[in-house]
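Sample intake sheet
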Amino acid sequence: MSQEKKLLHVVCDYKAGGMEFGEINTNIFNTLDNPDKVLVHTTEVPPLDTTALGFVTAQYALLPFEGKRIVYGNAAPRRDKSKAKKNNVGEGIKYARLRNGTEVINVYSEYAFGFMKDEIVEFRDIDCPTGGSQFRSRDFFPERVAKIMNGDHSVLTTELNIASIPDVSPNKVAWTDGFGNIKTTTRASHLQNMGLKPGQKVQITLNGVTMVGIVAIGGFGVDRGVLAINFGSSGYDDPFVELFLRVHHMSEKTAAVRFGYPVGGTEFSIKPL
């Protein structure tokens, strides 16, 4: 029996530890050949937030790992139309294999694959119903995910064009961490292309709030209470920029509080001073 490490990340817009995750994981385990050999880790992203979904998916998928790894994500707002959905139809799930061997199975909604687009070497459709259940991520998707974890790729169908995946533009909110730091889609290279260097003052306008901050290598490179526009901990070789308001206690106003808890995809502006 293979001793290869097997890791399955389940990233969904359900409440952490909630019943939805429990039901999804149960159906995954029902189909896995050797469930005791697979570590399943679940992550909650904000409801209907496909930017956060894509951001977290890529962060997991691109982290160095020795073994078999699949990232399965689902945030399907079904907002392509406002009319009633016949048979609860929605976005289908797609498959991507990355340059590092990681396999990603995501509902094809907005930015689900955009953050890792440049690393995809195979992009395929998956034979799976797109309607017939309000809870497709429990009733249909887990079986396909588990089969692929088992090494059964017979559910993969049409080859898709990687270029058709929507690009992720800079200057948008991507993810707010538990310390109130706002991770964005802007990368360090974007600031460098703007001619911005550490120590330079800039003006950030986000969610109707304007603050002056300082470009920094890290969030702790500025004084307490000063907004750092810093090269963050996500994004690897070209880090994503974070809006980091250094505080000593969580009772203080973090960047998330000051900017009114912006949702994923909210645009902001950076103006050199």
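Comment: The domain at 173-272 is CATH 2.40.30.90 (Elongation Factor Tu (Ef-tu); domain 3). The longest strand covers residues 209-216.
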